[in-house]
Amino acid sequence: xxxxxxxIAGVDIGGTTxxxxxxxxxGGRPRALRTxxxxxxxxxxxxxxxxxxxxxxxxxxxxRAEGPDAAVAGVGVAAPGSLDRARxxxxxxxxxxxxxxxxxxxxxxxxxxxxxxxxxxxCAAYGEWWQGAGRGFRSVLGITLGTGVGGGVVMDGRxxxxxxxxxxxxxxxxxEFGGRRCTCGGRGCLEAYASGPGxxxxxxxxxxxxxxxxxxxxxxGDLGRITAATVxxxxxxxxxxxxxxxxxxxxxLAAGITSAVNLLAPDAVVVMGGVAAAGDLxxxxxAAELGRPRFRSALDACTVVPGALPGTAGVVGAAxxxxxxxxxxxx
Length: 331
Hints:
Elements: E1 7-13, E2 17-24, E3 31-37, H1 43-66, E4 72-79, E5 82-84, E6 89-93, E7 98-101, H2 103-111, E8 115-119, H3 120-131, E9 139-145, E10 149-155, E11 158-160, H4 191-194, H5 196-208, H6 215-218, H7 228-236, H8 240-264, E12 268-272, H9 280-290, H10 297-300, E13 303-306, H11 313-326
Parallel strand pairs: 1-4, 4-8, 9-12, 12-13
Antiparallel strand pairs: 1-2, 2-3, 5-6, 6-7, 9-10, 10-11
Helix pairs in contact: 1-2, 3-11, 5-7, 5-8, 7-8, 8-9
């Protein structure tokens, strides 16, 4: 009799960070978790090679710890961009410079394990729905605030992908007509204001205009070193300008959430990612803006919560999507 596979490798490919973990097929927190930097400027093959090395290392670590119970069903991969799911191809990912990359086939060949590929934002949303802050809700809109602003939708327990796999990409919703240029080429996108780089840019623009703040002291006067984390650090230290920068990003996010909730009417919105870790400095003004008078039926029926799987939502969700697509697997 074949041994029931108890584990799934979850992979989250980000613009700056790669994460791999072994997730229990029945659900749970990842084991043998490891992270690494995403190679810059070396093309998809270098990134895939590093990811596959991390998968093999995680599988080996699990085998040492679990012995015969370490059977692995396969690999779920969370990848940025638009996808051809049936063939596991990344059609285009501008942040990574991938176009037509056969990601599933590369992973399967290097690991000798079956693989599925899903959009990274969809995986993060599914991870929070399956094992995180979205548990118990029928429908969830997941929003990831990091290098970009990603969005994914889970409806009735399944990721809703749309025609191109990018349904729910709230980051490219226009929140300021004719506003700041976004990396996608458009203007006024939410990502241009509420992402980590967007928050840093807002801070630097004000400082360049002469606004007084402790921020320059934190980067030895080099404004190019300011990040969203720097802004958060200054805000925690009581800097009024940095606090205002975070509040502005939160108000922009509230505008995007309001439009998305009125369109989709989800049971919950889960806000994830590094920027969301700012806590009350971010969620306070977000809640205040969401509470302003407006068309309220969908908003009043929706719960907005921070994610419960910091750093691992994509890994857990990728494994969950593998489980969802392949059903009970045997190793």
